[in-house]
UniProtKB/TrEMBL annotation:
<dbReference type="InterPro" id="IPR030391">
    <property type="entry name" value="MeTrfase_TrmA_CS"/>
</dbReference>
<dbReference type="InterPro" id="IPR012340">
    <property type="entry name" value="NA-bd_OB-fold"/>
</dbReference>
<keyword id="KW-0489">Methyltransferase</keyword>
<feature type="binding site">
    <location>
        <position position="316"/>
    </location>
    <ligand>
        <name>S-adenosyl-L-methionine</name>
    </ligand>
</feature>
<protein>
    <submittedName>
        <fullName>23S rRNA (Uracil(1939)-C(5))-methyltransferase RlmD</fullName>
        <ecNumber>2.1.1.190</ecNumber>
    </submittedName>
</protein>
<feature type="binding site">
    <location>
        <position position="295"/>
    </location>
    <ligand>
        <name>S-adenosyl-L-methionine</name>
    </ligand>
</feature>
<dbReference type="InterPro" id="IPR029063">
    <property type="entry name" value="SAM-dependent_MTases_sf"/>
</dbReference>
<feature type="active site">
    <location>
        <position position="386"/>
    </location>
</feature>
<feature type="active site" description="Nucleophile">
    <location>
        <position position="386"/>
    </location>
</feature>
<dbReference type="InterPro" id="IPR010280">
    <property type="entry name" value="U5_MeTrfase_fam"/>
</dbReference>
<feature type="binding site">
    <location>
        <position position="266"/>
    </location>
    <ligand>
        <name>S-adenosyl-L-methionine</name>
    </ligand>
</feature>
<comment type="similarity">
    <text>Belongs to the class I-like SAM-binding methyltransferase superfamily. RNA M5U methyltransferase family.</text>
</comment>
<keyword id="KW-0949">S-adenosyl-L-methionine</keyword>
<dbReference type="GO" id="GO:0008168">
    <property type="term" value="F:methyltransferase activity"/>
</dbReference>
<feature type="binding site">
    <location>
        <position position="359"/>
    </location>
    <ligand>
        <name>S-adenosyl-L-methionine</name>
    </ligand>
</feature>
<dbReference type="InterPro" id="IPR030390">
    <property type="entry name" value="MeTrfase_TrmA_AS"/>
</dbReference>
<dbReference type="Pfam" id="PF05958">
    <property type="entry name" value="tRNA_U5-meth_tr"/>
</dbReference>
Length: 430
């Protein structure tokens, strides 16, 4: 399997062919749909001989919905492939070699069940001829798939997708609302449900939207998130509370957190708890020590760090997340945190940390941030990553700087039925 939805084959000349709709070990008939100089792409049209790792997907929409690209691969095979992706990235991109990469990477940790693990799903909206269709993002670009339920949500709420899609399709079509997407967050722990409608600024039937959602779902929070700017550079123009709390609550370990609709929060709550556990076990922060938390979001690592260490410098660039962080710290009664809004490079804390957590987006760490981290006197860094390629690149930069070296890389399966894998890497002084 690739680090992606496709399986890999080679043609008679040895050229790499990425095959969608296949799993590793399959014999398939496939049609080439793209040919480049060094690689090709094909689409499987018939499974001639199934792989021993092929299973019948538990979800009837697998293959057409984009949410479960690995649903036809057994869970054991998924776990092997995800660990192998991390090893491969460290060996090739990190230039560590196969043998060292194998030693560094621990077995994959599975914190929960392979289905029903998500606390959030997003619906895509498509308007055609005055009619609005809401559904799951399809496997093909721009496709929208109408579903009766989503098996990635827990069983008690799997039908929520259909209820919300039906209610809002009617509302958007009859009122000319230009919805871009709809986010649904659900907590089985707090029993809070939030629906977030993402659109552009302008006239909006607030009362009617609140009534339609109340009749369909009775959410604890319904909000409207308005965006400005071109498609690839959207910025938040405002958030309106349509009904309820105006935010969503979840419990992660010992911490109760509130998160606004625009803020990032891990879609797998048990997975988030496992990440916190691994980070705290790796760093073992002490009451006399100072900590740093870069790309801290709404405080998933900041809160437990603050309870264990003397002081925390926390940096986050996204405005809504910074506001959520400050609210969560206040609610938790924690006053030993300096919460700073801004880019991690420009707002790098002017302090000497003993332990550091970094949890950057998929692009990884900027080269300047790696340099500044390498100048810290810290005894250890925990690097939480959602992208093996950028993790491997950054670990190579750390080693080149000569201060910190990776001791252990633990892959964590926050996203079963997909190729995505999270990792927690412990770096100690070289």
């Amino acid at each position: 399997m690739t680090y992606g939805p496709d399986a890999v084959a080679h043609d008679a000349s040895g050229k790499t062919v990425f095959v969608s709709g296949a799993v590793a070990g399959d014999v398939v008939r496939a049609v080439l749909d793209r040919e480049e100089e060094r690689w090709s792409h094909a689409r499987a049209v018939e499974v001639v001989e199934p792989s021993p790792d092929r299973v019948r997907p538990a979800c009837p929409y697998a293959g057409v919905c984009g949410g479960c690209p690995w649903a036809a691969l057994s869970y054991d095979a998924q776990a092997r492939s995800k660990r192998a992706s991390v090893v491969d990235a460290l060996a090739r991109i990190g230039r560590m070699g196969e043998e060292r990469a194998e030693r560094l990477v621990s077995p994959l940790v599975s914190p929960g069940e392979p289905w029903g693990y998500r606390n959030k799903v997003e619906l895509a909206a498509v308007r055609a001829g005055g009619r609005v269709t809401l559904g799951m993002h399809g496997a093909g670009e721009g496709d929208v798939v109408r579903v009766k339920s989503c098996m990635l949500l827990d069983k008690a709420h799997s039908g929520t997708v259909k209820s919300v899609a039906g209610a809002l399709s009617y509302l958007a079509g009859s009122n000319g609302i230009d919805l871009e997407r709809v986010g649904i967050r659900i907590s089985r722990r707090t029993r809070e449900v939030e629906v977030a409608l993402w659109d552009r600024p302008g006239a909006f039937p607030r009362a009617q939207a609140a009534k339609v959602l109340e009749d369909a779902l009775r959410p604890t929070s319904a909000v409207r998130v308005m965006q400005k700017g071109p498609a690839k550079a959207r910025r938040i123009a405002g958030v309106e509370c349509l009904s309820g709390a105006g935010s969503w609550g979840e419990v992660v370990g010992e911490e109760r957190m509130r998160v606004s609709a625009p803020s990032f929060f891990q879609v797998n709550t048990k997975g988030a708890e496992k990440l916190v556990e691994l980070v705290m076990e790796a760093l073992r922060p002490q009451p006399h020590e100072e900590a740093m938390d870069l790309y801290c979001g709404a405080g998933t690592f900041t809160l437990p760090l603050a309870r264990r260490s003397g002081f925390v410098s926390a940096v986050e660039s996204y405005g809504p997340a910074v506001r959520d962080l400050r609210r969560n710290l206040e609610s938790a009664g924690l006053d030993n945190v300096d919460a700073v809004g801004g880019d991690a490079g420009r707002e790098f804390p002017d302090t000497d940390a003993d332990v550091i957590v970094v949890d950057p987006p998929r692009a990884g760490l900027a080269e300047d941030v790696v340099r500044r981290l390498s100048e810290q006197p810290a005894r250890a860094i925990a690097y939480v990553s959602c992208n093996p390629a950028t993790l491997a690149r950054d670990l190579a930069r750390f080693e080149q700087a000569g201060t910190f070296s990776p001791r252990r890389v633990t892959p964590v399966d926050l996203f079963p039925q997909t190729f995505h894998v999270e990792t927690v890497t412990l770096l100690e002084r070289a």
